[in-house]
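Q: For a teaching session next week I want to show students how multiple molecules come together into a single three-dimensional assembly. I've collected the sequence lines for a complex. Could you give me the predicted structure tokens for the whole thing so I can convert them for display?
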Amino acid sequence: MSTKPKLAVFKFASCDGCQLTLLDAEDELLDIAGALDIACFLEASSRVVPGPYDVALVEGSITTPHDAERIREVRRQSKYLVAIGACATAGGIQALRNWADSQEFLAAVYARPDYIETLATSTALADHVTVDFELRGCPINRGQLVEVIAALVAGRRPRTPNHGVCLDCKRRGTVCISVARGVPCLGPVTQSGCGAICPAYDRGCYGCHGPAPQANVASLAEHWVRSGAGPAQLVPLLRNFNGFTPEFRRVSDELAARLAATE
Amino acid sequence: MPDLLLQKGDLQLLFDRLSGDGFRLVGPTVSQEAIVYDEIASVGDLPRGWTDVQAPGSYRLEPRSDEAFFGYVVGPHSWKKYLFPPLATLLTADRTDSGWAMHAPPEPTEKYAFIGVRACELAAIKVQDRVFLEGAYVDPIYKARRDRCFIVAVNCTQAAATCFCTSMNTGPRCQAGFDLALTELSAAFIVEAGSDSGRQVCGQLPLREATPAERAAAEAARAQAVAGISKRLETEGIRDLLLTNLEHPRWADVAARCLSCANCTMVCPTCFCSSVGEVTDLKGDHVERQRQWDSCFNVDFSRMNGGVVRNDVRSRYRQWLTHKLASWIDQFGQSGCVGCGRCITWCPVAIDLTEEVAALREPGP
Amino acid sequence: MTAPLSPTVGNPWLCHTVRIAAITPEISGVATYDFEFTDPDAANRYQFRPGQFNMLYLPGVGEAAISLSAHPAARRRWSHTIRVAGNVTQALAQLGTGGVLGLRGPFGSSWPIDDCRGRDVILVAGGIGLAPLRPVVYRLLAERSHFGQLTLLHGARSPGGLLYTREHATWNAGGVAVQTTVDRTAADWNGNVGTAVVLLDRLPLPRPENTVLLTCGPDVMMHFTARAALQRGLPASQLWISAERNMQCAVGLCGHCQLGPEFVCQDGPVFRYDRIAPFFRVEGL
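A: Of course. Below is the structure for the complete assembly, covering every listed component.
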């Protein structure tokens, strides 16, 4: 019987991209497989070893009554539960439904909406169960995932930085596209983790790692408004993969209310 | 040594001379719609015919009406990226049968010639020299790079709306700390040598003595920069002003605007804060201790096991400003600010430290 | 407070390797580790002054600043009393005797023991704050005749948090009067209840103007200790505290440990109170 920690990977409402990051960790995968017993990872193998598990990596948001029940079962089976990706940590892009009428969507998409059982909202795992660690990102960063796994194997807390994206832009020498080109960029209020990819490719950060700690989103939005960007441009920028996090939501709701008032 | 004249067409000869002496040339060049510092191969890489238009929170690259090589001021980069690299390995450790073998990384073999260093930047290098070289402990990473660099300074002939070097007594005239200093005229450069290495290089270039008219033209060009400076930071009594107003209401006011995003500290040519981290393979047998630029604006910067010391934007902005303008004087005998204005231009929400200091001079409501 | 002992030459990032020679459990979550240098030359050169600290390095985990708790005259083994608190100390706690780690140091300022000659000395320690004061106790005992009345006031949250209790009798016998107190009493506790500041309030001070007080513990305890001492007539220039901040370089190059104009790693950790007082209790400084 193996004494290696048992790892399981679970999926809820999501695109599978975060789980694929684990398979994408080619250089490290053999070491990971050597250090852990991968007991359940349907994306990689149909072999399923029943729980309990030492570590569960859980992707996806909770969107159905069945999800809400299943995540509680995953929690019961898992000693250390890691939420991976924006869906699991913030509700994901599908949390856009939280601002709309999901019944309307059902009627528009499905021939027999009465066959579909769904919740009115898409929410993070932490809204349903206790989560031991949240790994942010859409998708998660491979290096950070390896760090989390290495830390769990070593029995220490993972080291994932929680400063803003700007620090990484500056470290790599990227010119600020907000200041030099007037492009609205969420970098100053977004947690790093991606390595500041988007501004290096001439586009603003769209916040895929969610709000940085103590992010002052309201001040950034005010500055854009003063600089001529309208709420019609800013609301969709904030309501993205991490749009339903409290920091981004509060400001997008304020801007949306302003927009509604002017219409 | 008298002021000398270098024809613009001969600027490449200076570059060739330095390359021939084994220097890698780094200097201003256009990239990402800004003038940045990067490796350059020839005068063709310089931002000839370009200028910058700066304001709080705004930088725009614009074409000039002439063919000036150095017709702009300072951009988002500073020379610290070469002297105090954003990422550096401090130590490596390898597991052995009996424990660990630890080694310092090899010294760099490359040496850089910095082309186009402005007066405020010479001052910034001097400030960082004081921090990294002249204290009780010497930073070996900085020292290895600093000892080997050759500095070609350039006198500013214009100013940005964010410049305030005259308030800090750091410019715009390059006074010392360079090997060569250039002043750009329409068809030539006036060259001053500031060191023996500079004089040696001069001896190998086709220079002639500048005429009084050429010297006067250079003086006039430099005077344009002084005349162009509109921003002012009142430094009278600034140390006591800041350190005795630690509870001034303005700190909360600026905290409502500040994003705590660290951009000001990253573009600042004197900010020297860093953090050290461990990079390991999954087995943990090979370890590198790496130092990265860090910032007092990050929440974790003051984290201890007992909690975070500066746990709000107010305390972090206060730390930055009081350190830069006040406690730096206690620590290093000079201000940490050289008046380059980068922190004003590159603040995403246009916070201007000169306005914050002015507001701190007013009693709270 | 005196200038750093360490030379200005050399690479301050380089570590010596040391081996854990002995581990002595102290109180819950705290143990004293004795380290020996693997390089005998390094051992011969190594000296520290009471109050100074070392950076202990576990490759792959990181560094932690740990004060020395050794006898100042130690020549072969140097002890550090360490509480398990963060990643580094947790990993250290998993190493047994013989384990090898890195060490840089000693760094920082020291307690002004020479200024204490001819004077009465009060040490006020909260919890593990006694660790950096133990070298002072050893030094006072070793040169007992040079000092006046010597008192150690040691407080802890509970009786189980009192440090080095097995040595207290020796210290008392040697001429350092030890008084202990706890915030929360326990079934088998017959001693004082309250903070160390309460003990200080009660302590007879025959000549406050000729008394030196050294304190180490939580910031709030040191603050109230200093306040009480000033009220009792000790001059601010004869009060000394030991401050704590995030430290990464220990040599004034990384910026983390600033407290107002001070670098705690270099100007501290031991500060004369009148120097640090304007900044010490400013929230979030």
